[in-house]
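Appendix B.2, paired examples.
Example (i):
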Amino acid sequence: MTNPQRSSLLAETLIRQFMCRSDNFGVLVHDAASGATLSIDAPEEAPIVAALEAEGWRLTHILTTHHHADHVAANEALKARYGAEILGPEKESAKIPGIDRTVTGGDRLTVGGIAVEVIDTPGHTIGEVSYYLPEARALFAADALFSLGCGRLFEGDAAMMWESLQRLRTLPDDTMLYCGHEYTTTNARFAVDVDPGNTALRNRVEVIERLRIAGKPTLPVSLGEEKDTNPFLRADNADLQAEMKMAGADPVAVFAALREKRNGY
């Protein structure tokens, strides 16, 4: 398990990130005022329980992003252990174990005292949602947006995913991005291949390499950095389009070309 990481603009909101399974991130969000603790997805029971016990927190809610097994595997076990309420996307409710309440894009909720905004981010799956905590300036994008990457298009198409990423791109630059997996090293190699003239990207790759050598996670990262360096957020950028030999092309076509190239990387 990695060392605890907390990031928030408000001292009473604590965020802890740790590893689950082989490369999944587990994340807990705790509201000190109410005592509520949210798990973003539930990849694996034991690491989540260990993180809760280490902090002395009790799980009250699970915010599910999408139905894939490596994001819902521990839903029912954690619900049985803690009585946690499980929220998840309405479009995938039939595939989410133990779901109690559905959410859709545009919903603004208060979950255990924590303000949560739901953003539709289909593409990886048809109904995936991301969760934005405006007061803590934290975005939980699961498998929609990765650090320097994005999710494979298992159920949606390029146009759908590009629209999803544009929604996320509108969030403030100081938003801290949390993702579902530690894929950043491979994503970084790919990003440099397709965007070699991006100085900000090259500088960031050096930081990523140092983090991984030290055994530290590459997340969270500011959304501002992602906007400058993630090729999948830059499909409408003239410099990247030129590197792809697609100058002036429809950004959806550029995004699709990037995603196809990454699939075989």
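Example (ii):
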Amino acid sequence: MRGLNGEGTGGGRTAGRGRRLGAGLAAGSTAVAGLAAFALLCAGCTSGGTGTRDEGPAGTRPVTRASAQDAVPAGTAKPAPRIDAVELVQADPKVSARFKDDLKPCTGDEYPIDTSYGTLTDGPAADVVVNVMTCGDSVGVGTYVYRQRADGSYGNVFAAETPAVYGTIDRGDLVVTTQVYGSKDAVAYPSGEDIVTYRWTAGRFAETDRVHNDFNRAVGNGEGTLPVPPTAKN
């Protein structure tokens, strides 16, 4: 009976060894398969790809590298040759004689003039915006726009001679801001402001937008402190 159930006989030991051998072969096959998979994974990681994150067939075209010559230009602004803004204003027949007489250096040879260059009229060169200010408090008193002519000279295409005026270039538009003062307003605290946007249309500047802001006159008359925030409660 012991021979039939394999206990205590050579056949039983042989069968036991056979089972262990089969298990060993199965384990060995599993290990080989695991090593093969690991080798494929390593090959994918070291071939310049992203390993298991890559999807689809492998590319066969060479990698194209961008160069400085292939880069798209960052902007389309025209070159802006610097001009003598003081000389331009003094020679401008559209500038009033009073403004020319008042235009004097503040210190040394420094004139109270701001100059901006940019595209406003789509002319042959950059347009020039000149803001004339006062020396004492830097309040704008005149804004002028000059466009280059065919002969290279500049002509006045816009003029605003109003106290507290200032012009800027904003994405191809001319934006003119004028501070509004009441009879008792200090220079530093106007009552409001008018912001007018102009666009070059049919050979001249046309108004396209107007905004008026009223300022609170109760603020800015003294020094204050920021309010202390309340203590957070858990």
